[in-house]
Design goal:
This protein is mainly alpha-helical and 506 residues long. Among the domains are: 1-68, no CATH class; 85-211, no CATH class. The protein contains 20 helices and twelve strands. It has helices at residues 14-21, 28-32, 40-50, 58-65, 83-94, 124-134, 140-143, 145-160, 180-188, 194-198, 200-211, 251-261, 265-278, 304-321, 327-347, 376-379, 385-399, 423-435, 439-460, 488-501, and strands spanning 35-36, 66-67, 95-96, 112-113, 223-224, 227-229, 235-237, 301-302, 359-360, 365-366, 420-422, 466-468.
Length: 506
């Protein structure tokens, strides 16, 4: 984790803890997005003098010494515009200009799109799905943002050695599902490898970040950060976070979960943080009992989707380096790719449905609970045609609802569980099914998801972060925090699906 001129809110010590535990703000993220008005040491000196006074007013102290982030506005309405026009206009609302370091915000050299709502920064994997629609923006300056966002991510890789969860200092201990390569391939289209070759050094550096410590694994069961050794000796990946404390942006919530779990606090915090690296925060997928966050065990799980992403990275590096590169490294990459492909087939399928699932490292068995992560082997072409047909059957029989595909079949109150559906997974399923010629089911997914978005837009004038796909009379899906306006990746996926439906793109 980098330690340079960045401002880390934890450096506020007791003041930070007091603000977050007192629930001065209803959202733990609000305070960590504030900017100190002066040097932290000066603020702490003032705090130490003031806190002992009977008249100490925490709210007034914070307002005096910190600049609050811009309030999230929820009054932006469509003015009854056609939906695609509304989404085109929204790029301006979601656009952020290049900014220098300010508080916890890590400055970026180029403009970018934020998800919306309380999410005031550029998020990693969100951005790929946002770019799906952004690349088709009517305004040339909006479409050009795709290249700017890629350049920002390359900048972060050069600066940090990886892409963090988002450009906030409290996100620097973890990444997110590695979609940088897919962003480059989106810009390249089917015509050439220009952007992939331009940013080859950054692709390689990100790959090395995910594989850090692979050479230290000697026997099955060995683990190091994001790498694990499987029973057959194959190195695969898991989600991880460098820190084992409560997340600053969820300090109150994480502290309560860890305290109530009866488990060692650092262990629970690490699992909670690792789930955030997955992007699925939170889901029964990571819970031992399938219900309670206190049973979370993220780092004990080898995720099928993450390993498909890493396999794709290995296969692409092989292709790019075959144009001229280190022959020994090419052989290593080929061995890793072959072993990972075999391991996904061996360890990440359950017996009951022959459905792709995660693997539980400590239990030594596939996790039986099915999730929509199973569509990643379709998207990346890992499945055989027969396996693809079986996945499609399970999706059609057990997942498909009136409003799209729920993330899991479990209803737990966690936002990455039923009845919620999320735009990125609808897209991965849709394109994965198309890849295998399963166009009828792919069309159903697209039609039901886009109609759900359209209905909620008609009712509210907004696009949402997530949707209830089981009861389309409900305006949006529930979960960890209130529904956010925007919303970057929903907009991107909807635009791309509708343009395909209209035959304007393929």
């Amino acid at each position: 984790m980098p330690d340079n001129s960045f401002y880390f809110v934890e450096s506020l010590g007791d003041l930070y803890t007091l603000v977050q535990t007192s629930k001065l703000f209803s959202d733990s993220k609000f305070f960590v997005d504030c900017t100190p008005r002066s040097d932290v040491s000066a603020i702490l000196a003032e705090y130490e003098k003031a806190v002992v006074l009977e008249s100490f007013d925490l709210d007034n102290f914070v307002r005096t010494h910190f600049i609050f982030p811009a309030q999230v506005k929820s009054d932006y309405l469509s003015a009854n515009k056609p939906l695609l026009q509304h989404l085109g206009d929204l790029w301006t609302v979601l656009k952020r200009s290049p900014l220098s370091q300010a508080g916890t915000l890590v400055g970026l050299p180029f403009s970018y799109i934020v998800p919306g709502g309380r999410f005031r920064e550029m998020f990693y994997w969100d951005s790929y799905f946002t770019m799906l629609g952004l690349q088709h923006a009517a305004e040339e300056s909006d479409a050009a943002l795709c290249g700017d966002m890629v350049a920002n991510f390359a900048y972060l890789i050069d600066l940090l050695g990886y892409i963090p969860n988002g450009n906030r200092t409290y996100f620097l201990s973890r990444s997110q599902p590695p979609f940088f390569l897919l962003m480059l391939q989106l810009l390249d289209g089917n015509s050439n490898d220009f952007f992939q070759l331009k940013y080859l050094a950054q692709i390689e550096k990100e790959y090395q970040f995910w594989m850090t410590g692979a050479e230290t694994l000697k026997v099955p069961g060995d683990v190091h950060r994001r790498v694990v050794m499987m029973p057959d000796g194959t190195v695969m990946n898991r989600y991880w976070d460098e820190m084992d404390t409560a997340r600053p942006e969820a300090f109150y919530e994480d502290s309560r979960i860890a305290r109530d779990s009866g488990r060692p606090l650092p262990e629970v915090h690490r699992h909670l943080r690792a789930a955030c690296e997955s992007g699925w925060d939170f889901s029964s997928r990571w819970l031992r009992d399938g219900i309670s966050q206190s049973s979370i065990e993220t780092t004990d799980i080898v995720p099928v989707d993450l390993n498909c992403l890493l396999l794709h990275m290995e296969e692409t590096l092989i292709k790019l380096y075959s144009k001229g590169g280190n022959a020994d490294w090419l052989r290593v990459l080929q061995e890793r790719a072959n072993s990972r492909h075999t391991a996904i087939q061996r360890y990440c399928r359950n017996g009951a449905d022959d459905f792709y699932v995660d693997f539980h490292l400590k239990d030594g068995v596939p996790v039986e609970r099915p999730t929509l992560a199973a569509v990643f082997p379709l998207f990346f072409g890992v499945a055989s045609p027969e396996q693809a047909g079986q996945i499609a059957k399970v999706l059609d029989d057990r997942f498909l609802t009136d409003g799209g595909l729920p993330t899991t079949l479990e209803t737990t109150g966690q936002q990455w569980d039923a009845p919620n559906g999320w735009a990125p997974l609808q897209w991965m399923a849709y394109k994965g099914l198309q890849r295998y010629g399963l166009n009828e089911l792919a069309g159903k997914v697209r039609q039901r998801w886009t109609k759900n978005c359209e209905k909620v837009y008609s009712d509210t004038g907004k696009m949402m972060e997530k949707y209830n796909v089981e009861d389309i009379s409900i305006k949006a899906g529930g979960g960890k925090y209130p529904n956010q306006d925007g919303f970057g990746w929903t907009n991107g996926v909807y635009i791309s699906m509708k343009l395909e439906e209209k035959g304007e793109i393929s």
